[in-house]
Amino acid sequence: MIGASGLPSVEMMVFVFFIVMAIGFISLLISQRTNVSYIPLFIFFGMFIGPVLNFVNRDLAHVLFDYVRVFGLVMILFTEGHNLSLFLLKKRLGTVLTLDTVGLLITALIAAAVFSWLFHVPFVVGFLFGAIISATDPATLIPLFRQHRVRQDIETIIVTESIFNDPLGIVLTSVAVALLVPQAPSARILEMMAGHIGIYPAAVVFFLYQMLASIAIGIGMGFLGYWILKKTGVMEFPDVIIYSLSLAFGGFLLGEMVHASGYLVATVTGIVLGNHKILFKEDIKTARWIVKAIEREVHFNESLAAIATIFIFTLLGASIDLSVIYDYLWKGILISFAIIFVARPLAALPILKWHNVKEYLFISLEGPRGVVPSALASFPLTLGLTYHDPQLIHWGEIILGVTIIAVLTTVIVETLWVPFLREKLLTVRSIVKEFEEKGYKPSS
């Protein structure tokens, strides 16, 4: 069902939409009935309809995935930003900032070293894999955390960490791409700076530029968005939905235009809007309708983010080459365990300053990889195809396959042992301490 122009026909696009949504519905039902994470189900079903049965052509799935990942990540990160509480962030600032800076970089470097050693590739290729796999995604853990009554302060740390390291992982990936593919458009600024201060100092400056510029633009977009919302009185559906989507994608485009990270811009914009009661002085009447307006747009955007998640993981599964999975399965599993048992615990070591050993162990052993690594997994392959680079295509195939193995392994392992770790590491004493922090004193 290919049209005369060589593009997929309307019927093919409708078929892909139908089958992906059907997979999402079935996977969510299975997940709710069995308490099994839905992420592996999306990927496995994607493999089934793609390379196994060939219902969806692998090349078509890859092309669609490249579009879906951009739209999906903007929606997911913009929506996640709304759910981050600046009050809770301030309370756990040291832990979260450490995990999202030092922890992110250590994870990427260790994963890079292991990848480069196992596959005998240059370290810069391994660093691209490490940057892609560096971001965590505990969204799959939240229902399990609540089911097994994991302490709220620990849950908040892990979730807040992910909200920030998702876009920062994307920024780190853009730096890695610039180092590996100098001809890529995103590498222009890096190449210009490298001519004056050297490639590695330039990479550090480029990372800081992307991070700081994105945060500044995101704050500006958030304040502008709030001002427009307040002045126009937009509140009803669908006006507020259209407005919020324009803000999210406008911020993304602005960030990309100045070679910053549009994804981080969208995240910070969402944080500003989600914390409007803290950041802006509002009278009671204004506060009430703004709360209603933002609640409506968040509710709708959460639905879009959920649909985007289904498409990202399902099309990822449909676009892979199964021979790569077969060829590199054991190496991929070895890298996954290196991330779980070496990279993540070493990256989290500095948080012992604020947490006891048991809390540190729980946090360091609950960092599954998810939507951002999955969305970035095919990016190196896409670059190889774009620039007709056989070597980069080969590396891209390996990175894609190993990333999928790492996502599946970390999600399966780190969801299965939640109740065990909670029982062994988050003791009664820690629960009492949580009550004391909230102002309650246990009776003597």
Number of strands: 0
- Count of helical stretches: 21
User: Could you estimate the helical fraction of the residues in percent?
Assistant: over 70%
Portion of residues in beta strands equals under 5%
Let me know the largest β-sheet: none
Give me the secondary-structure category.
mainly alpha
Choose one word for the global shape: globular
**Radius of gyration over alpha carbons?**
22 Å
Give me the strand/helix succession. HHHHHHHHHHHHHHHHHHHHH
Please state the average pLDDT score.
Answer: 85
Question: What can you tell me about this protein's structure?
Answer:
This protein has helices spanning 10-34, 38-52, 58-82, 86-91, 93-119, 123-133, 142-147, 152-180, 188-197, 199-232, 239-257, 262-274, 276-279, 284-319, 322-348, 357-364, 371-376, 379-386, 390-416, 418-425, 428-437. Helix content is 80%, strand content 0%. Residues 438-444 have low confidence and may be disordered. Helix 1 packs antiparallel against helix 2 (38-52), helix 3 (58-82) runs antiparallel to helix 14 and helix 6 (123-133) runs antiparallel to helix 8. It has 444 residues and is mainly α. The protein starts with 9 loop residues before the first helix and ends in a 7-residue tail after the last helix.
